[in-house]
Amino acid sequence: MSKIGKATAAAALAMVMGAAPALAEEGIRGKRAGDLVIGLGAIGVLPENGNRANVDTIGGRVRASNAATGQIDFTYFLNPNISLNLIVASTRHELTAKGTAVGDVKLGSIWALPPTLTLQYHPLPQSRFSPYVGAGLNYTAFYGYDHGGANPAVRGVAVNGGFGFALNAGLDVEISGPWAVNFDVKKLFLAPNAAVGTTLGVKVHAQTELNPLVVGMSVRYRFSL
After folding, report:
1. CATH top-level class for 3-224?
2. Is 48 buried (19+), middle (13-18) or exposed (0-12) by CB count in 10 A?
3. What is the pLDDT of residues 49-71, one digit of tens each?
C-alpha cells in the first residue's frame, strides 16, 4: 500500500474508534433529500487481467499490478433512496508483458486516474446499517509513464484512456451526528489499447483486459443542504 493509502486508512480507523462510543447514545437520523456527503478513505485497485488481453508481434498478455491509494468521494441524495456518487483517486501500476516470445518483459509503470459516477439505490435509508447497489459510468485516463525497472529494449508505453461501465455495492454505517463509515466495492469494465515503443523503432500494440475490482473503506461527513 502506498504511503497515502496507509495514512488515509489510519486516519479512517482512528476516527471510527473515536466515534464508536456514541453508537449507543444517539438516535438514527438516516438519509434525506439534499444531503451532501464527503468521504475520505483508502482503496485497493485489483485488475482482473483477463485472458482476452493479447500482444501482437511477440505474443503474450499485458498484466497490471494491484495498487492502493487514498480516495475522496462525493455523494448527493436526490431523495432518501436515490443518490449520485463520484469517486476521485489515482493509482500507480507496474506493467508486464507475460508469456511473450522473448519471455516476460517488464514495461515500466503508469498512473491511472479513473473518476467514476454511479447512481445508487438505498433500500434502507433510515437504518444505521444502510446497504446500497448502483451502476454508472467510468472514464479512465492514463498518465505519468515511468521507465524505471523496465526492460532495456522498451522505450515507452502509452495506454489509451476511455469510458467503461461500472457496477457498485456497499454499506454505510451511521456513527454519530453527521459521521458515518462506508465500505464500498466497484467493478469497472475497462479494456484499453496500449502501444509499446522499442529501441528498434518498432511499436508493439496490445489489447488489455483490466476490468479492475475497486474495494475501499472511508469515513464520511454529511452536510445538510
Report:
1. mainly beta
2. middle
3. 988 777 887 888 889 999 999 99
CA distance 101 to 63: 16
Contact yes or no for 48/211 (Cβ under 8 A): yes
CA distance 3 to 61: 30
Domain ranges for the chain, please list them: 3-224
User: Are the C-beta atoms of 2 and 68 separated by less than 8 Å?
Assistant: yes
According to DSSP, residue 123 is labeled S
Residue 43: name the closest of 67, 24, 17, 59 by CA: 67
What would the pLDDT profile of 179-206 be if each residue is shown by its tens digit? 999 999 999 999 999 999 888 777 888 8
**Which CA distances in Å does 203 have to 60, 63, 111, 156, 171?**
15, 18, 21, 9, 45
* C-alpha–C-alpha distance, residues 106 and 94, integer Å: 8
